[in-house]
User: What shape does this take?
Amino acid sequence: MSDKKILNYSDYLQLEKILNSQGLKSAERGTPAHDEMLFIIIHQVYELWFKQIIHEVDFVLTVFGQKSIDESHVSHAVLRLDRIIEIQKVLIDQIRVLETMTAMDFLEFRDDLFPSSGFQSVQFRVLENKLGLPPLDRINYGNQDYKKPLLDSGKEAVQKAEQEKSLFNLLENWLERTPFLTFEGFNFWEKYSQAIRGMLNDEKDTIQNNPNHTSEEIEYHLKDHERAVDSFEAMIDSEKHNSLIEKKKKRLSHKATQAALLIFLYRDEPILHSPFNLLSRLMDVDELFTTWRQRHAIMVRRMIGAKIGTGGSSGHAYLQKTADRHKIFSDLADLSTFFIPRSALPELPENIKRNLGYYFNR
Ligand code: HEM
Assistant: This one.
């Protein structure tokens, strides 16, 4: 007879540990607050999901860290990103469960939490770094490094993720290397610029001749329009693009930006399907993080009003700023400024189309 232990559900999932890990601080004080159980469990559930998301992001990082990446690798990465997206939706929905706790109920145990805070979530910081949030672009409070309130073990993990290549870096390198975007013998950018300049001039006319706007309003809209023109000029001129990068108005390199735009414009070509899906999913992940940040900030306002956070920040105001600014793939979203209808796109010559297509019957 084999002496192999028969696997049991509880042992496999280590439920003994998990289900005995809810130590209510209010109970230690002798006055257990009913809602502290929910508060602890919801944070633990978030941390488990963060772990799963990091696991998926690590897979995508490995794929894009390789020298040679083929179509099937990209499709595989897209599947992992799909999973992250579904988890993120759950993370956003879960806030509603927490909101069944009222602000008064939270007060029953809030003082017990000082000075701990979600600000000290190591996995959340690791995730931000792995995706590519630059340390210097972080909104600081109290002029202190965001790693300072972490335990030493956490600091190390966060620092490591800060130093490794992020998904943003690897995507940029991959876009710069995309081979299908060199249009030999066909001046794509000249033809495309003509179409875009025509579109931008039409827009300028519409702004200038809008009978419903005052001259101040027209001036205001023309300034916005000028920014779009500058941004487009940077698309075709690497020096202009680099100067926008220096001013922190753009982040993605010129070459990578051009490649991303071409992927969006010619996404109907078979070979660009997976790259298009990849870029779209990355924008989804970024957007859903922003949505989570916004939802968390709204919930926090309802819970603590204008009070400071237990971690010492200004609370809602700080969180709202992170929702506005802590974005990673905005450069991709901004590209839609330069989309034109398919009918106005430069027609690709047949030899280039053949390179972009899958020809099974030559
Ligand atoms: C009653 C519920 C909650 C309140 C009142 C609250 C409040 C806050 C506040 C005020 C901050 C800013 C830092 C500080 O001063 O403490 C913060 C940060 C944070 N919280 Fe919450 N929170 C709540 C629930 C949650 C939950 C369920 C999670 C899930 C993990 C979470 C995750 C985070 C994270 C990751 C940060 C850092 C955000 C950043 O720095 O960008 N919070 N929270």
